[in-house]
């Protein structure tokens, strides 16, 4: 179903997925504009749009936001997607289309449009790709300095693509905002006039926003309505801007780097931007989420076919009080619960007995692990679990052997202080020597001990982000800003090499909680730490926002001792993703341990459905009345119900399910037991809740159904 086609007479290119078409047109002046992004059209239908009049701005000027990549140059005053300065201080682009290349295929189809500046040696290639079994359109850009003479081109802005919405009666955006311990708080509000910008200047994706936005006309619901989404696959600093013009048109441009960062291209060099992804659906926000999830599982995740194991992490039990005997003691308790992966957290290495020292010295603490990690790893595996460890390769404590040997390896400027945060400084991963050092010790750690899992943390944002060694390079022009991009690229490179050399290794992305979650990071990790906030009630809204774009199978969710809610409720919230346990098992009663053992077993019965199934959000907003998350995978159905605080009004007596075969017969498999009903009945009359959901505060339940006819 993925295809690309061209009508050369009308200069129209069309990319189609199973349900959608993205079409663009080269005008008589050579400007590339978007014709259509929405329901699937034939090539002839798409090409017919080329004859229509474009939206006209004042003075009869074309509207620059209709362009595929609005440039800084000519009669344009909107947000530029591409902005450069040529030698001599010329800060104006004039591009013309010089070639196109289409690459059809069974699994994917690609279109490359080559533009060149009319005078200066700059080539700009706009890349487009569509793939099988997804309605996502991928776009990215390559900039090439095609000159031979000395001299650089300064790139101030290089977005991956600009996306135009059709004219709508109104515009509403959906996005997530937050902070550390409060990530992914969903906001759905009218899009303001002017420029609405999301972004990060932190060096990572960030806690404060995430690089995606959805737009609709203000009437879309979970079940119906047109929704357009844009998501950037990048894990460093970024900017996404939605422009709402007076002419009632809206576009979204997105790319890596934040304003003020400049990249220099020298002769023969090129710069390729990360992918920006676009998705249209007419099935509402629920269908949009399911389409994003399906795309991630089919085309992004490195081991998407696996089910994530139930893990235990030792941090909350012991904090920095880590030694071999203590880890083995709690590992035995975890194994008894049915845990499949044991992860030792911070405090196992160097002089790391608290947060102020040892970070960067990645060898087992000889006092705590006199025999190294081998004996602990072997015993954990003998208990039937995989073995994982916490690492933070991008950080260093000033009180460490590494920093004393290489103080120049951190981000810094001359004559400026080096501000510490969490008593840490940031290593400059853009440096090749730092990258190779990191790969070397990680490769040895994983190889020597058969490590199954790395919890890769990154706990602080960039500050004093200088690279003095790059102040003058080659032609005497500084290029320190490249660290903002190359740091992330080298993190990717280390992860990619580790996975290639150790195919069984699995990685979790963590950044002080959910600070580095995006499709770029998901392309090389298996799960992400959603938030340091493990309170089950707070986690419901955090997980609700997370699931708008990212699939539940990558959402690490722990049961901990943040205990305002009873144990069953905490488990039911954590079951909505990749289940983990992080509580202090030494303090759990025999009753708690028995209940946990039962709930872990129950999760294993449904985890394939949860991690690989289609997700439906039902009922009220999480935490406000009765809410539920339903998953459908083949003939299996799992429903997680939550009713934390009953109000004065009675709760609904039934819950309408979705995604079921109308004529299919479904049978309940749970302690409540006994229900047999067709999908049509469960979607209209609903699933009765009377004896299935406990009354009083913190009511929760797991309901399992199976199609039997």
UniProtKB/TrEMBL annotation:
Q: Which Enzyme Commission number(s) are listed?
A: 3.2.1.22
Q: Where is the active site?
A: 457 (nucleophile), 532 (proton donor)
CDD domains recorded: GH36
The residues covered by the Glycosyl hydrolase family 36 C-terminal domain are 627-705
- Record-annotated Glycosyl hydrolase family 36 N-terminal domain positions: 30-265
Molecular-function annotations in GO: alpha-galactosidase activity
GO terms (BP aspect):
carbohydrate catabolic process
| The keyword Hydrolase appears for this protein | yes
Ligand binding (substrate): 180, 345-346, 422, 455-459, 510, 532
Question: Which PANTHER family does this UniProt record tie to the protein?
Answer: ALPHA-GALACTOSIDASE C-RELATED, GLYCOSIDASE FAMILY 31
Quote the protein name from its UniProt record.
Alpha-galactosidase
> What species does this protein belong to?
Actinacidiphila cocklensis
| Lineage, uppermost ranks | Bacteria, Bacillati, Actinomycetota, Actinomycetes, Kitasatosporales
